[in-house]
Amino acid sequence: IYVVPPSRQVHPFLNKEPKTAHNTLGGLVLCEYFEKEKMSFTGKKVIELGSGTGIVGILAVLLGGNVTFTDQTFILKKMKYNISVNIPPWLTNHTKVCALSWDDDLSCFPTDYDVILGSDIVYSSSSYPSLLQTLQHLSNHSTTIYISSDVRPVNECNVFHAEMLPKHFHCERVHQSGNNRIHVYKLTKKHNCKLQGAVLAIGL
Ligand SMILES: C[S@@+](CC[C@H](N)C(=O)[O-])C[C@H]1O[C@@H](n2cnc3c(N)ncnc32)[C@H](O)[C@@H]1O
């Protein structure tokens, strides 16, 4: 896998020099987790949030997924280039690139994704409410979400992972790496408690 540095020369993904490779540690660790788990996305409808360079989504395509890469509009040009140089022509129809800002009206996005991916997208507390809403909109009870986060205190991501997400999702930390600085979380949507209560009441 290759990534594109500002010079637009192609550098190997494994080049850890931060000035040439713009992948985050969170992205690399999520890829490492997929490798460790021998993950397959074959036949899965996948969406990646905050794709950046696209490294995680690119791996998901190579592992069989139909991937929608998303990010803010100004990121998309570089991402498209990275996808074009890393995805073989016979898999191009397994990729889609869309602008998706978490504050956007999401009604044009479906809610039937099998998998949602996000690496290093939990770092700015002002975006936590809209990120949470985005995850809620795009997911259903069969969706599996993988998020990797840098848990340095300055990121305050504990508020998101320990307080906000567990109200709506079952959350499990499934992997740690990078001197335990990067945590990978696996989430599934909780059933609506009020609805469950109503169903139980009717059953009684
Ligand atoms: C630290 S980068 C991580 C990029 C990539 N996932 C990786 O790990 O290499 C965070 C990404 O989230 C995107 N992002 C931040 N706030 C966003 C928002 N409100 N809506 C959509 N994307 C956002 C940024 O544009 C950026 O690409």
TrEMBL record:
The record's annotation in PANTHER family points to: EEF1A LYSINE METHYLTRANSFERASE 3, HEPATOCELLULAR CARCINOMA-ASSOCIATED ANTIGEN
- This protein's name: Uncharacterized protein
Q: Name one GO molecular function term.
A: methyltransferase activity
Question: Keywords, A to Z?
Answer: Membrane, Methyltransferase, S-adenosyl-L-methionine, Transferase, Transmembrane, Transmembrane helix
Q: Which terms does the UniProt entry file under GO BP?
A: methylation
Origin organism is Callorhinchus milii
Locate the transmembrane regions by residue number. Answer: 49-69
Highest rank taxon of the organism: Eukaryota
Q: Does the keyword Membrane apply?
A: yes
Q: Quick one: a GO cellular component term?
A: protein-containing complex
